[in-house]
């Protein structure tokens, strides 16, 4: 996940595509965007095609939890990942 807190002249979508990064997430402090590489360009998608079919609501909750209690966030996120792997 890229946390987008600065503005740069680098076209990151083109940069990541040139490296063959198949998916990336961008969070600007308010909105999570998930992008998937298709035909050499990124398309915004609602769910992660590779990371446990994650829906954005879960990601927002984890980000909110992290701001409140990083230790609890780490524990609950790890438990969630383990549960997703088992499913």
What does this molecule look like?
44% of the residues lie in helices and 22% in strands. With 87 residues, the chain is an alpha+beta fold. The chain has a 4-stranded mixed sheet. It is globular.
Task: Produce the secondary structure layout.
Layout: E1 2-3, H1 12-19, E2 23-27, E3 32-38, E4 41-45, H2 56-68, H3 70-86
Parallel strand pairs: 1-2
Antiparallel strand pairs: 2-3, 3-4
CA distance, first residue to last residue = 23 Å
Mean pLDDT: 78
Helix and strand pattern: EHEEEHH
Show unreliable segments: none
How many helices in DSSP terms?
3
Backbone structural class: alpha+beta
In terms of DSSP E residues, the strand content is 15-25%
The 3D shape can be described as globular
Sheet with most strands: 4 strands, mixed
Helix content: 40-55%
For the CA atoms, what is the radius of gyration? 14 Å
| Strands side by side in the biggest sheet | 1-2-3-4
Question: Would you count the extended β strands for me?
Answer: 4
